[in-house]
Structure formats: C-alpha cells, structure tokens
Amino acid sequence: MMKNFSLKYGKSEVSFALDGARSIQTLTENPMNTIEDIHAAFLKAVSTDVIESPALDQLVSPEDQITIVISDMTRFWMRQDIICEELVRYLNEVIGIPFEHIVILIGLGTHHKNTPADQKVLTGDYVYDHVAAVVDHDCDAPDLVDIGTTSYGTRVLINPLSIGRKVICIGGTVHHLMAGYGGGRKSIVPGIAGRETIRHNHAMALDPHCEQSDPRVGPGKFNNNPINEDMREAGALLHPVFGINIVVNSASRHSGLFCGDFDVAWRESCKYVQQCYGLPIKDQADVVFVSCGGFPKDLNFYQGSKSLFNAVRAVKPGGTLVMLAECSEGAGAKDFFDWLTPLREGHLDQSLREAFTIAGYIFYAACENIRKANILLLAGPKLDARIVNDMGIRKYDRMEDIMADVDIKGKDVYIIPYGGSVMPQTEADYTRFSTEI
C-alpha cells in the first residue's frame, strides 16, 4: 500500500510516496515536558528540588564574589538568557548579592569572540545592563591559572575569573559526538580552559593505535570515555559551587532544570536526555529517510551534520540513507571543509593528529559515518556537489531523482522527521547507555 510523507526542508516541505516496503516506521523522540512557568520552576530547582546539594541560598552570601559561566552562541538553542536572568535576579533580590559582585564569563572554548550585541543576546538585556561585567573567555590569554593535572595528563589552565570566586555554571545537556553528553563539566573544559588544555582533552577522540576514532568515544558513551572522564576530573579540580543544567525539547522549549551538585545534577540531566532523546530500535533498517527539521537546522551542511550522525545509527551497514538538508547558506564552517584537502590527498588521519581541531574531528567523524551507508542528499543550489561528493555523498537537486534511485521494495524503512533530536540506538546500546550514567 502506498503511503505519503512530508518532511521539512528549509522553510518549506518535501513530499514523497513510498510503495512496496515491507515495513515503515517513523522515529520521533519520546514525549517531553514543557516548563510553562520558568520562574516557579527555577525557584524550586535552586531551593527545594536541589540535587545532592544544599539550596543555593545556603552556598553563597552577600559578601561573595560570583562568577556565572554561560555558553556561547553555538549553544543558544537552550535559551540560557532566560535562566541567567532568573539566576541574577535571585542572587541579587533574594540573597542580597550586589550586582558589582557578579561577573558573567562566556565559555567560548576556542570559538571566536562575541560582539557586545552578541553578549547582550547571550545574557539578556537585564543581566547585561546590571552585572559588573560580561567577559569573553580567551583560551590564549597569558594569565590563565594552572589548577592541576588530570590522570590523563591534561594540564588544566583556567580563566582567572573562576579562581577565588564562587563559580556557578549554566549549561545545556544533549548527546555529544565526543564527550557522550554535552553540558555540565564542558562549561570548564572546553568552556573556560586554555587552548592546550582543550586540545589535549579533545585529541583523545582518535584511537591511539589505529587510524580511526577511539571506540570508547561517542554520543551516549559515559563510562570509560576518556574525554568525558578527563573533563569530569578537570571540573572536580575547579569544583564550581553550583550547577544549573538545562534540557530543551525539539521545539527548543525548556523541558527540565537540574540544579545542585556540579557533577551529580549534570548526570541527572544526562539520564533525562537519554530517556527522552535516546530511542531504542529492535533492528536497523535497509533504508532511512531523515530531515534535519528544516530551517535553521539545515542552514548549511555543517549545521545539518548532527542529523547525519544520528540517522546513520538507524541504517544497516551498506544500506541507504536519504538526507534532506536545503543548505541555503551552502557548506558552512570553513574550518570544517578546510579538511577536504588532506582527505583528497589521503592523509586526513595523520594531519588531524598533527594539528587537532574540533571542526577537523567532526569532519573526520562525518567521513567515517558516511562510509557506513549509501548517502543520498537532497540539497539546494548553494551547496557545491563536488564538496560532499569528495566526502562520499551523492547530492541531488530533486526528490523525484532520489526516489528513482532508491529501491524500497520488500525493505524495512525508517522515517526520521527531526534528525538532530532523535538518537536511535540498538536495544543493547540503549540499555548500556541508560544504566552506566
């Protein structure tokens, strides 16, 4: 029986029909809460519902100097500005901490600096206009402070605004390509750490013995993940006084606030992410159709690559993955596609080990995942076909041409409408990921 489907593509939708498949299943995230009253939820989260910690008003006092670490624009989907305002108002109005004692430190890691307008967006107008300062972290600053070395040999250099002050971190938790989960300790490394600290930690994404990613590293992988464990050790060296962890639903509405002990509260947020976005599947499918979820999630190929990483997990080795990403701004992220040259010349692994970067590793991992399946990409004219062809992807301009090349007769098919949100997992992986946090 023929079934019709419609998936988001840029600011519009693309429709197609499937006929003759053995089975068709749509994969979506599990139902998630939406917090309707943020103010009330925040007050509960920092007072009566704190996790493995005293309430926030017992941890800081009016005499304390406070540094609030927030994320940069690449994490603005979690709308930390709303929570940041709640926190600053609480510190000032409830606890009595003067505004001049409060500094906002933006955890840029190695990302580019913000304009003042960007800073105001990240903090919100109220916070920007009232606190003593809003400061971008500089990973190359000469005054970074050495707070110790992890068991993995990572020398932890940290922004001086986190030393001798009470540190509160606001972060967003999601599945993460290398660290297992984002948020939490990532506010420290890479957020406010030195470049060499970040490089040493992230370089553990590569297998020390083979030309491949380290199999212990990947989304959902918690125990024995050297990147995660190293980050947690670095966070413990600094020991922030309080952690605020945000989880949002696929509509970017706040769904959970997990506050309290820096490590334990973050781990609770990881459990919620795995429960909501981790999707156990009995078997991988022969053919998978995935949309990034439309604009702005498919603004460029780099932005849409998360959908590729997630969807590949649902397709059988050597199967077919049809990906919809309009890429109205083309490829995106020059530092991602700069790695095409070593790929074409056959020394990608060697070059990445010599000069490791985050964008370079995401490119490396994308190439690894592309080799697992036959990838057909529907994208607009702004994306140069030669770029993705060299990575192993066939680009199409029309869905009709893709459907002419896809055989679904007697095949098992998955449809994933929001590829960036759902992380399909075999039942064995789902059980392991859920129990080891």
Describe the structure.
This is Nickel-dependent lactate racemase. InterPro entries: LarA-like (IPR048068), LarA-like_C (IPR043166), LarA-like_N (IPR018657), LarA_C (IPR048520), Ni_dep_LarA (IPR047926). By secondary structure, this protein is of the alpha/beta class. 33% of the residues lie in helices and 24% in strands. The chain has a 6-stranded parallel beta sheet. A hairpin with a 2-residue loop joins strand 1 and strand 2. The mean pLDDT is 95.
In angstroms, what separates the terminal alpha carbons? 43 Å
Helix share of residues? Answer: 25-40%
Average pLDDT metric = 95
CATH superfamily of the largest domain: LarA, N-terminal domain
Going by helix content, strand content and strand pairing, the class is alpha/beta
CATH architecture of the largest domain: 3-Layer(aba) Sandwich
Rg value? 22 Å
Number of domains: 2
Q: What percentage of the residues does DSSP assign to strands (E)?
A: 15-25%
From the spread of the alpha carbons, the general shape counts as globular
Largest sheet features: 6 strands, parallel
Q: Uncertain runs with pLDDT below 50, 5 residues or more?
A: none
CATH-derived topology of the largest domain: Rossmann fold
Count of runs of 4 or more consecutive helical residues: 16
User: What's the number of extended β-strand segments?
Assistant: 20
